[in-house]
């Protein structure tokens, strides 16, 4: 979906396809048919943006076969879909029964992460619509914190500098400008936008910036205004923003609240949980750990890394952090010029929600994602952006 900002620039809204398990190119093509095109039709749009996730095997197939890349581009056109952004965070197995810590491998100290991300950049250059010259890719924020050492961190930064040079060469070769956004996430080396400042200033490459995920921002209790202002003051580009909402528990000490939270403690994904106390932010790596007695202070609100559907807040006594998303979006695109032009709805946890909230049919999932995009569209038009055909 395309929008015209009051300053005349183009802002893109997409939804991320990592909600659909697809490890191979054949599976990617099937998801375009079974999910993406039906969502476009459900919205009554002639064109729909998707934030494509390409797992290792799918990316290899496209990288090694120019005809396959051309065929994917033609299939996107045929189904009324367009791609200006990729989700390069998960490498493989994101649809597995248990993902947890695996999603952080390979990290940026592993040469395979550089190879894979370079391939994604080349692929995206071939998928961009004819009238678009800018693309974006989100990636993991260096590494999970427990495996990081000073030497590995320096190796990761060196890899990103190398990537910056490759993106420069790709721009010169293709005329397409590709940028990479490190995506702060609780528990990683870069957990917050503040944590991203020093590494990105160190890298000092205009094609290497940040991806602001509003669920992660909220889970870490970051105030969107100061966080985004600090990035702007440091000259760190916001390459893209993932529009998502976290789970909020105002009174985690209450038995009914803890019971409600227990329903979101599931085995597939990590659900990092944080609270902000007088002594600072404290947290656990997973919700189940937080629910153990005494593991996390419970006199202040908890926020949990669960991407809850934007349009459907959880039932009381829980809520979502949709207000944080709205505040961040106002700062991102509601000013005299947009801080980013790539927005992506990323609720990948539909199939990991409590049983009563999970879509039981493909149609229900289509309706849910369409409703999320409709909400995001309304937020954008309320900020003065004009929806384009």
Shape type:
globular
Largest beta sheet, briefly?
8 strands, parallel, barrel
Mean pLDDT: 97
Number of helices: 12
Radius of gyration (CA) equals 20 Å
> Percent of residues in beta strands?
15-25%
Describe this structure in words.
With 389 residues, the chain is an alpha/beta fold. It is built from twelve helices and 15 strands. Helix 4 (111-127) runs parallel beside helix 5 and helix 6 (193-203) packs parallel to helix 8. The chain is globular and about 55 Å long. The mean pLDDT is 97.
Write the layout of secondary structure elements.
Elements: E1 2-4, E2 10-16, H1 25-43, E3 48-52, H2 56-63, H3 66-78, E4 81-87, H4 111-127, E5 134-139, H5 150-174, E6 177-182, H6 193-203, E7 208-213, H7 214-219, H8 224-234, E8 238-243, E9 245-249, H9 255-262, E10 273-277, E11 280-284, H10 287-291, E12 302-308, E13 318-320, H11 322-333, E14 342-345, H12 362-382, E15 386-387
Helix pairs in contact: 1-2, 1-12, 2-4, 4-5, 6-8
């Amino acid at each position: 979906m395309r929008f015209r900002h009051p300053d005349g620039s183009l802002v893109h809204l997409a939804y991320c396809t990592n909600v659909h398990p697809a490890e191979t190119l054949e599976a990617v093509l099937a998801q375009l048919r079974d999910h993406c095109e039906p969502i476009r039709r459900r919205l009554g749009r002639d064109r729909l943006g998707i934030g494509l996730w390409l797992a290792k095997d799918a990316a290899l197939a496209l990288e090694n076969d120019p005809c396959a890349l051309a065929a994917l581009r033609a299939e996107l056109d045929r189904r009324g879909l367009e791609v200006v952004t990729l989700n390069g965070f998960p490498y493989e197995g994101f649809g597995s029964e248990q993902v947890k810590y695996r999603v952080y491998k390979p990290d940026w100290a592993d040469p395979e992460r550089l190879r894979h991300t370079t391939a994604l950049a080349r692929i995206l250059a071939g998928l961009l619509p004819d009238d678009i010259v800018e693309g974006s890719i989100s990636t993991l924020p260096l590494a999970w914190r427990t495996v990081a050492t000073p030497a590995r961190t320096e190796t990761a930064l060196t890899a990103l500098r190398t990537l910056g040079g490759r993106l420069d060469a790709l721009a010169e070769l293709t005329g397409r400008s590709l940028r990479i956004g490190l995506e702060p996430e609780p528990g990683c080396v870069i957990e917050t936008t503040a944590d991203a400042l020093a590494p990105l200033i160190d890298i000092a490459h205009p094609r290497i910036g940040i991806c602001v995920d509003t669920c992660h921002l909220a889970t870490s209790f970051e105030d969107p205004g100061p966080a985004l202002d600090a990035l702007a003051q440091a000259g760190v580009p916001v390459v893209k923003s993932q529009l998502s909402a976290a789970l909020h528990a105002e009174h985690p000490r209450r038995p009914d609240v803890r019971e409600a939270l227990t329903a979101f403690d599931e085995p597939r994904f990590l659900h990092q949980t944080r609270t902000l106390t007088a002594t600072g932010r404290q947290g656990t790596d997973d919700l189940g750990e937080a629910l153990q007695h005494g593991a996390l202070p419970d006199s202040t609100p908890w926020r949990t890394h669960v991407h809850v559907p934007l349009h459907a807040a959880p039932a009381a006594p829980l809520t979502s952090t949709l207000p944080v998303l709205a505040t961040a979006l106002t700062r991102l695109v509601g000013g005299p010029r947009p801080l980013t032009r790539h927005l992506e709805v990323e609720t990948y946890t539909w199939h990991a929600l409590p049983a009563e909230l999970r879509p039981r049919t493909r149609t229900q999932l289509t309706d849910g994602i369409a409703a999320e995009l409709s909400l995001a569209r309304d937020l954008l038009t309320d900020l003065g952006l004009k929806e384009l055909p």
